[in-house]
Amino acid sequence: QKEVEQNSGPLSVPEGAIASLNCTYSDRGSQSFFWYRQYSGKSPELIMSIYSNGDKEDGRFTAQLNKASQYVSLLIRDSQPSDSATYLCAVNMEDTGNQFYFGTGTSLTVIP
Amino acid sequence: GAVVSQHPSRVICKSGTSVKIECRSLDFQATTMFWYRQFPKQSLMLMATSNEGSKATYEQGVEKDKFLINHASLTLSTLTVTSAHPEDSSFYICSARGLAGELFFGEGSRLTVL
Question: Which residues are CB-contacts of B63 (< 8 A; sequence separation ≥ 6)?
């Protein structure tokens, strides 16, 4: 059973639209949640972290966490072609030695 | 955020040779660094946890004698792929934790074994 699951996509949205990326996780004891962006051929880049239930906004990005539903999402407003990348959800699971677990990523394409 | 630097970014070698990849934390001290491997269109796979001054902890299925990890200082960890073969060709990425517990990644090293 996968610890962190994401829809692999591809997800396509027109420029200016809202892109919604979703992630579910299996460990109820997880405390820290992260979204990374990875361009093709590059290493992941941290774009958002969230630690408590609710929404966290940073510019065009909003992370949403619902621990009861074991669900974390990332909204990208006013999507730009430069947002086209793979988005990785990561969960820090304390009951497994404080390791990070990554989803397989969702490929996003923003169409000009 | 924290800066992690990795070198070389690309390396091509002949089968049977060894390749060393360096990972440095530039503006902070990292007692622990993590080495990942990523095959095309797949997610990150944790290979090992590098601990400063002690032995690395390897994930199940990762050969410790093939992937040698040395973490001799608080700012440098190295991964040596010994006797590399074509199936070792992959994207190797190191990372270290920032103060808030988040992971910061190096630029990655793309290894091609001919």
Answer: none
The token pair that represents A43 in the structure block = 């290493």
**A95-to-A9, A56, A66, A99 alpha-carbon distances in Å:** 30, 25, 19, 8
Whether residue B103 and residue A103 make contact (CB cut-off 8 A), yes or no, is: no
Measured distance CA(B91)–CA(B44) in Å, rounded: 9
- B101, A104: Cβ pair inside 8 Å? no
- C-alpha span between B78 and B96 (Å, rounded): 13
User: How do residues A23-78 score in pLDDT, each as one tens digit?
Assistant: 999 888 888 999 999 999 999 999 999 999 999 999 999 999 999 999 999 999 99
Cβ distance of A102 and B44 shorter than 8 Å: yes
- In chain B, residues with a C-beta closer than 8 Å to the C-beta of A41 are 110
How many CA atoms, within 13 angstroms, populate the side-chain half-sphere of residue A52? Answer: 0
